[in-house]
Amino acid sequence: METIDLARVAVRDLNRRLQMREGDNGETEFSVLNPGGAHALAAGLTHPINVTIDGHTGYYCAGMNQEANVTVVGNAGTGVAENMMSGVVRVKGDVSQSAGATAHGGMLVIEGDASARCGISLKGADIVVQGSVGHMAAFMAQAGRLVVLGDVGADLGDSLYEAQIFVCGTVASLGADCVEKEMKSTHKSELEALLASAGVDTDASGFRRYGSARQLYNFNIDNAGSY
Amino acid sequence: MCGIVGLYLKNPEIRTRLGAYFSPMLEQMTDRGPDSAGVAVYRDAEADGAKITLYDPDLHFDWDGIAAEAERDLGVSVTVERISSHAILRAAVDAAAIRRWVEANKPSLRIMSSGSSLEIYKEVGLPADVLSRFGVPQITGSHAIGHTRMATESAVTTEGAHPFNTGDDLCLVHNGSLSNHHRLRDWLRDHADITFQTDNDSEVAAGYLTWRLGQGATIAEALEAAISDLDGFYTFAVGTRDGFSVLRDPIACKPAVMAETDDWVAMASEFRSLAQLPGVERATVWEPEPATVYSWGRA
């Protein structure tokens, strides 16, 4: 275990170390202390290492993550795990706006609540929120899965492409072209596997499934006169 | 982009350290607003009188002469305290009387604030420089609100810096931009007799709240009404004599985070502003909901 204290080390030096740009000595366990809400902590990681950040982080924590397993023992600011490619990012507290924005792969687990625009433009990653999410969740989400154990704010899945959404709590309203879909047994087993891999112990049968009605993103010849 | 911060000390025993708690919060927001900075401080309420913060760019301006003229015209004792490019005038009359006297007799002076406990200091420059110029780290008081500015809607000038004060002991800082401020400014000028000193959109929001309060609304009611009457992006922190309030627009594009302990409640654009507050590791930390008014003290 290597401990890096941000009270003494600059963010840039932390990230150079975690990105193995100073060489790889085989260490795979890292503990980061005193994050103090700094931005871009543990961003751009490309190695299969375990990083635990003890405290609240600022914007874009674990952004562009590949392979790494990053845990925030606190809250995370705007854009946690944005554009993640692979690996796992887990936040023990709440997260701010645009969590997991444009993430292509990997898994983001939020043990608390997420605010507005969670999973905006999601491109293939899985996001599991154990609390509730704010408005405009999964806005224009193209691929991947968003799972919410709590409640969802207004305009869920607005202008949705092919991402899948599972919600256990209430949904304030659906966005344009987002509809509730049948929860078949295949979806239930898929969700069970996803919850298990997120380490979340809950019954998958209480969830409803939402997806795209596919009326908005296909060109419709009947609307040609409107253009 | 801009940075906003607010701090209200619930525990009277730490009010001697208001500036020490507050200054690092504002300085942390330098990245969000390096153009100019401003601070509103609530302290030492005048029991039966008023104080008014005035500004003149001349650091050797004859404030004693102004006080003497005001004393002669108003017929009461007027004291003056120079603080860099600003000065505090105190007198045993109501705030409107001094404000009217300055507007009528000294139109070249900028009125930064008027009321009984509010003082506002703002200048062009880096937040750290503005804080030290006005001695903010040493300041005592119950609450303070601050702003670091990256200008988008109007010029980088001392007058365009926040906080804005348009009514007694009321001030506002704003992160965002309003889109209906021209029409609303005209309406407030024509129908509510609100005067404006700048073309800044945020001053219109302060004027709007002043008008609502003048109609008998509480600050919370005035902010509720603002949700439907103000169009644009905003996170506001609003100070009143006895408290402070926070409001984000319904879309909530502009950030805000809040933290509260038994001793204090604080808000900032980003958590890093709050990270060095004593006791923050035990604080409840949360993001304020969109279109929801939060108030502390007797706001």
Number of helices of chain A: 2
Trace the largest sheet of chain B across and list its strands. 7-2-8-1-14-13-15
Content of β-strand of chain A: 15-25%
Relative helix content of chain B: 25-40%
Count of folded domains of chain B: 2
Largest interface: A-B, 18 and 16 residues
Describe this structure in words.
The complex is a heterodimer of chains A (227) and B (299). The relative contact order of chain A is 0.09. Chain A starts with a strand and ends in a 15-residue tail after the last strand. Chain A has one domain (52-216): 3 Solenoid (Pectate Lyase C-like). In chain A, helix 1 links the parallel strand 1 and strand 2 (29-33). Chain A has an 11-stranded mixed β-sheet, with helices on one face. Chain A has 227 residues and is mostly beta strands. Chain A has helices spanning 11-18, 185-197, and strands spanning 2-5, 29-33, 50-54, 69-73, 88-91, 107-110, 123-129, 143-148, 164-167, 178-181, 208-212. Chain B is an alpha+beta fold and 299 residues long. Chain B has 2 domains: 2-44 and 121-297, Aminohydrolase, N-terminal nucleophile (Ntn) domain (Glutamine Phosphoribosylpyrophosphate, subunit 1, domain 1, 4-Layer Sandwich), CATH 3.60.20.10; 46-116, Alpha-Beta Plaits. Chain B is built from 7 helices and 16 strands. Chain B has helices at 18-27, 63-74, 95-105, 127-133, 181-191, 201-214, 219-229, and strands spanning 2-9, 36-42, 50-55, 78-83, 86-91, 110-115, 118-124, 143-149, 164-167, 170-178, 232-240, 243-248, 257-260, 264-268, 284-286, 294-297. In chain B, a hairpin with a 3-residue loop joins strand 13 (257-260) and strand 14 (264-268). The longest helix of chain B has 14 residues, at 201-214. The model of chain B has no long low-confidence stretch (mean pLDDT 94). The A-B interface holds A 36-39, 56, 58-59, 75, 77-78, 93-94, 96-97, 115-116, 134-135 and B 251-252, 255, 257, 270-276, 285-287, 289-290.
